[in-house]
Amino acid sequence: MNERDSSEVKSAVRVLELLELLSRAEEPMTLRAIVSELGYPKSSTFNLLATLISRAYVVRIEPESYKIHDAFRNGPGWASGRDAQLIATAQPIMDALRDQEGETVFLGTRRRDGRVRILSKSVSRQAVRFDSDLCGTDPAYCTAMGRVLLASWASHRVDAYLARERLVKITDYTVIDRVQLRKIFDETRRNGFGVSDREAVPGGSGVAAPVRDSSGEVIAALNIATVAPRFDSCKDRLAQAAIRNAAELSYRLGFKGSITSGK
């Protein structure tokens, strides 16, 4: 054993080798396949996977397959702490919501500058669907998640964001008037959900609802996104589904208060 090998921590090496294996795999891997590939005991491999799932680095696909989380394969990077707990708690809800409604589900948070950072997604299985990369940031003024997050922010911070953000008419439907945008944020707060209909992406529409932590603070937004031709017929249903599932996620994060929606 050389000097480098003697300084390695066995458990850390196993975690890294497990992550490296899953990052190379094009499809989810079964526990049996992982054990066979790495040569680890089944029990310890299962425990390592459970830990990585709890930290949101790995996602379990029923009945017993595993894959590295898309956020770490495609960006924006590694997560820990609050974001990791949020992703790990949200993913099963997002996957179930995707299967229930047949549309893509996103989870996003607000950056300090007010823009939206997408943490996780569960992509629709329909042939024609909405999707977006887990990298970069999105403007808040014209997106459903952004409007939810701005609606819960202190007014002086919203004013600062609108003064700082370059309000661009991305599509013919994008609202850029600051007075009208403030009215939209107020409506979002009253209704308990936000809407963006072909404003942020041509042909893309969606709804989002707020996610709260144990203190009641809005820390994220749960978004259901679809293609515009399907949106008109399912908008109300998607809005209620977003509210209901965001409330369930909030409950699992420790929020025990009541959430009322306007419509």
From TrEMBL:
Domain HTH iclR-type per the UniProt entry, residue ranges: 9-76
SMART domains found in the cross-reference section: HTH_ICLR
Keywords in alphabetical order: DNA-binding, Transcription, Transcription regulation
UniProt keyword Nucleotidyltransferase, yes or no: no
Domain of life: Bacteria
Signal peptide: none
Family annotation (Gene3D superfamilies): 3.30.450.40, Winged helix-like DNA-binding domain superfamily/Winged helix DNA-binding domain (1.10.10.10)
UniProt keyword Transcription present: yes
Transmembrane spans: none
GO biological process: negative regulation of DNA-templated transcription
InterPro entries named in the record: GAF-like_dom_sf, HTH_MetabolicPath_Reg, Tscrpt_reg_IclR_C, Tscrpt_reg_IclR_N, WH-like_DNA-bd_sf, WH_DNA-bd_sf
Gene Ontology MF annotations: DNA binding; DNA-binding transcription factor activity
Pfam families associated with the record: HTH_IclR, IclR_C
Record domain IclR-ED: where: 70-255
UniProt protein name: IclR family transcriptional regulator
Organism from which the protein derives: Pseudaminobacter soli (ex Li et al. 2025)
